[in-house]
Design a protein that fits this description.
elongated; Integrase; three-stranded antiparallel β-sheet; single chain; mainly alpha
């Protein structure tokens, strides 16, 4: 058996009686959890040891193999959006921009009891998320008037430096399976802030 499998077999985690009860008690009748765990441990060990690996590849051969696989997945030409794709994207963005929860800057400043100058400073410092579409000015999602949701937005903006605001907006406002189908701004609470920030950052691919 190759050394790699020997190492794996020798370092398998121990299966305990508690593990057995948690995993199998709902589906099988366990008379002796400890004995069951021991038999299961031996069963797994035997199957790991029975695995046969292909002959060991040297580093150069492995790199060539991976290069061939990567090449097969690479398109010969780069995709570029056509005029129809660009127009469709603009229409989607404009529709989102005009949603009632996205407030004009002056209205947001009034509700936040801040000056416009302070709102501009907060946008510049990535403390607030602002959206724009061409010459129509800026709008801010009204969820940022809530302290916890604003903290979520600011944390994501800070961690996602370099990610454009529209991508951040979509990540915050679209349902996530990991949040039970709720959007991050719907799911976030004081106690779950860190977990929700991590969930959004996973979607954005930032850490």
């Amino acid at each position: 058996m190759p050394n790699t499998l020997e190492f794996i077999a020798d370092h398998l985690p121990t299966i305990t009686a508690d593990d057995v009860v948690r995993r199998f008690s709902a589906t099988v009748d366990i008379r002796d959890a400890s004995a069951f765990a021991a038999e299961l441990q031996a069963f797994v060990q035997e199957h790991v040891e029975a695995v046969e690996l292909p002959a060991r590849l040297d580093r150069k051969t492995a790199e060539q193999h991976l290069a061939r696989q990567a090449s097969s997945l690479r398109a010969e030409t780069h995709w570029t959006p056509g005029e129809t794709d660009i127009q469709r994207g603009r229409a989607v963005r404009l529709n989102l921009f005009n949603q009632p929860h996205n407030l004009p800057l002056a209205e947001f400043a009034r509700l936040a009891n801040k000056s416009r100058q302070q709102i501009y400073k907060d946008i510049e410092a990535r403390r607030l998320l602002a959206l724009n579409v061409g010459p129509r000015g800026q709008k801010l999602p009204d969820w940022q008037l809530d302290g916890v949701k604003q903290a979520l937005t600011q944390a994501v903006l800070e961690m996602g430096e370099g990610v454009d605001n529209w991508t951040v907006y979509r990540a915050l406002s679209e349902p996530l399976e990991g949040l039970g189908g709720r959007t991050p701004v719907e799911a976030v609470t004081t106690g779950s802030l860190e977990d929700v920030v991590n969930a959004v950052c996973n979607v954005l691919g930032v850490h």
